[in-house]
C-alpha cells in the first residue's frame, strides 16, 4: 500500500475460479501493473464487448507529442482493466518536436474543424443508416443481415469514440494551466469559466439541437401527441435560472478579464475561446458515437431477441444483448455447429465497490517490494463521504440510488442522484436533478461537466457513496467542503 492509500494485490498462483465471486481468479492479463477501471465500467461488460478488448486512445498521441503511446484495455471476468504504455525513450526527441509544432502552429484548430465539419456529420450518417430501418418490419432473412450490421457498427462506434480523446483532454488541460498561470486562480476555478460551453450535455433541453427542434415543432402541432406526453411531473427548464446562469458566467469572465493588465486581455480571450470550444468535444465525441449509435444497434438486436423468445429459443429477449455476433447469428439461422452449449446457473456478480476493496492494481511481485503505509478506507463517519467538488453550491434533497439503467425511472424533480459514475446517457434526467454524487470520476468526468452545465452541486470521486447512501435518504451536498452528509433516513 502506498502513501496515497493504493492497494497492490499480489498473486503468486491462480485461485480456483467458481461461481462465487470470492473465489474468482484475477491474474493480470499481461506484464506490469493493470488498473481496475470502475469509472468507465462499474459493471461487467457483456461477452461480445469483452472480445473486443483492444488498445485505445492511440489516435493523435504522436501528433500532439503525448508520452502515452496507448492505453491497453483488457477484461478479467468482464471487469475492465487498463494499462498505459509509453513511447520508448528513443522517441522522446521526436515527440518534443511534435508537441512544439502542435501548440506553436495551432494544429489543434485542424482537429476542431475536422471534428465539427467532417467527423460528426460522418457519425450521423452511420446512425442514419441504422435509424431509417424498422427492424420489426424486416423479413427474417433481412433481420439476420441487419443484426450482423448492428454488431459491426457497434464496434465501429466504440472505436470512433476514442479518436478525439487526446486532443480534447490535452487542449482543455492546457486551458486550465494557462488560465491559472495568467490569472493566478486555481486550475479548478478556471473550469467555472467553461459553464454552459457544452450544450450537447443538456440532452433534451439543448435548444441548439436541430433535430430536437424539428421534433418539438412537429409534436406541438399534434394535439394527440401532446396529450400522450402530458404528465404531472415533466422536465421543464427553469428559464429564469438558465438566464441567471449565463449572466453569472458573463460577469465572472468580465471580472477576471478586467483584473488583468490591458496588454494581457487579448491573451485571456484567446485562451478562453479555445477552452470553451474544445470542452464540448469531451461529451460530444461519445454522444455522436457509441452512446447513441450503440443504442440504435441494440434496437435491432432486441427485435431479434424478441423473435427468438417467441420461438422458444431463448427465455428473454434481453439475453441476446450479451451474445457475441457469431452466437446471435447462429441462433437466428439455426446453425449451431460453432457454438459450445453449456448450462449456466445464477452467477454472483460483485459490484465494483466490492471488487475495489480487494484490489486497485494487480501484479505478480515480491511482497517485499510493496510500499508499506496505511490504506485509506471508508471514513469513520457512516453518514458522510468526501470527494471532489465538481461545481459550486449546496443542496439538501432526497437520494435516488442509480445502480442500473432502470433506476433512472425513479428520479423525480429535485432528487440527488448517487451512482458509481455517470455518462452522457444520464442526460435525459439531469434536468430533474438537484445534485449529483459519484463514486468515481474527476473534474473532467461527465458528472462534473453536466453539473457545471446545469449549475447544480456535484461531488465526484467519493469512492463509497453508493455504499453509505440509499434511496430515500435525505442528504446535504456542500461543495464548499467537498462533502455529502446524511441528515435523515
From TrEMBL:
Residues 412-481 form the PEP-utilising enzyme mobile domain. It comes from Nitzschia inconspicua. The lineage of its organism: Eukaryota, Sar, Stramenopiles, Ochrophyta, Bacillariophyta. One of its GO terms (molecular function) is transferase activity, transferring phosphorus-containing groups. This is Phosphoenolpyruvate synthase. Pfam families: PEP-utilizers.
Amino acid at each position: 500500500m502506498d502513501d496515497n492509500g493504493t492497494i497492490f494485490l499480489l498473486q503468486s498462483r491462480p485461485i480456483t475460479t467458481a461461481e462465487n465471486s470470492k473465489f474468482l481468479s484475477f491474474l493480470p492479463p499481461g506484464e506490469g501493473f493493470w488498473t481496475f477501471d470502475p469509472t468507465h465500467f462499474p459493471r461487467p461488460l457483456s461477452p461480445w464487448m469483452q472480445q473486443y478488448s483492444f488498445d485505445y486512445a492511440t489516435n493523435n498521441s504522436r501528433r500532439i507529442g503525448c508520452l502515452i503511446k496507448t492505453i491497453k484495455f483488457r477484461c478479467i471476468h468482464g471487469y475492465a482493466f487498463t494499462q498505459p504504455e509509453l513511447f520508448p525513450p528513443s522517441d522522446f526527441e521526436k515527440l518534443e518536436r511534435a508537441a512544439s509544432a502542435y501548440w506553436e502552429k495551432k494544429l489543434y484548430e485542424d482537429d476542431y474543424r475536422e471534428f465539427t465539419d467532417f467527423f460528426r456529420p460522418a457519425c450521423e450518417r452511420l446512425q442514419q443508416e441504422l435509424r431509417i430501418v424498422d427492424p420489426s418490419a424486416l423479413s427474417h432473412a433481412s433481420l439476420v443481415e441487419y443484426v450482423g450490421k448492428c454488431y459491426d457498427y457497434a464496434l465501429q462506434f466504440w472505436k470512433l469514440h476514442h479518436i478525439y480523446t487526446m486532443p480534447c483532454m490535452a487542449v482543455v488541460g492546457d486551458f486550465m494551466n494557462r488560465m491559472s498561470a495568467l490569472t493566478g486562480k486555481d486550475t479548478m476555478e478556471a473550469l467555472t469559466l467553461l459553464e454552459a460551453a457544452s450544450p450537447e450535455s443538456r440532452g433534451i433541453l439543448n435548444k441548439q439541437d436541430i433535430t430536437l427542434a424539428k421534433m418539438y415543432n412537429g409534436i406541438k402541432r399534434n394535439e394527440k401527441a401532446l396529450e400522450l406526453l402530458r404528465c404531472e411531473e415533466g422536465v421543464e427548464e427553469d428559464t429564469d435560472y438558465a438566464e441567471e446562469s449565463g449572466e453569472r458566467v458573463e460577469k465572472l469572465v468580465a471580472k477576471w478579464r478586467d483584473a488583468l493588465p490591458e496588454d494581457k486581455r487579448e491573451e485571456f480571450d484567446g485562451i478562453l475561446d479555445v477552452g470553451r470550444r474544445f470542452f464540448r468535444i469531451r461529451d460530444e465525441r461519445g454522444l455522436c458515437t457509441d452512446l447513441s449509435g450503440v443504442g440504435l444497434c441494440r434496437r435491432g438486436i432486441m427485435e431479434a431477441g424478441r423473435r427468438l423468445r417467441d420461438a422458444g429459443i431463448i427465455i428473454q429477449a434481453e439475453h441476446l444483448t450479451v451474445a457475441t455476433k457469431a452466437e446471435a447469428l447462429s441462433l437466428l439461422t439455426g446453425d449451431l455447429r460453432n457454438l459450445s452449449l453449456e448450462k449456466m446457473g445464477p452467477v454472483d456478480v460483485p459490484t465494483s465497490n466490492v471488487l475495489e476493496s480487494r484490489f486497485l492494481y494487480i501484479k505478480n511481485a515480491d511482497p517485499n517490494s510493496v510500499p508499506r503505509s496505511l490504506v485509506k478506507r471508508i471514513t469513520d463517519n457512516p453518514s458522510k463521504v468526501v470527494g471532489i467538488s465538481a461545481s459550486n453550491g449546496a443542496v439538501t434533497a432526497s437520494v435516488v440510488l442509480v445502480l442500473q439503467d432502470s433506476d433512472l425511472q425513479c428520479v423525480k424533480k429535485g432528487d440527488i442522484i448517487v451512482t458509481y459514475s455517470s455518462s452522457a446517457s444520464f442526460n435525459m434526467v439531469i434536468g430533474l436533478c438537484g445534485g449529483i454524487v459519484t463514486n468515481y470520476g474527476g473534474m473532467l468526468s461527465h458528472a462534473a461537466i453536466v453539473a457545471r452545465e446545469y449549475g447544480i452541486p456535484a461531488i465526484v470521486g467519493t469512492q463509497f457513496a453508493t455504499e453509505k447512501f440509499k434511496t430515500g435518504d435525505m442528504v446535504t451536498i456542500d461543495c464548499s467542503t467537498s462533502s455529502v452528509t446524511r441528515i435523515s433516513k
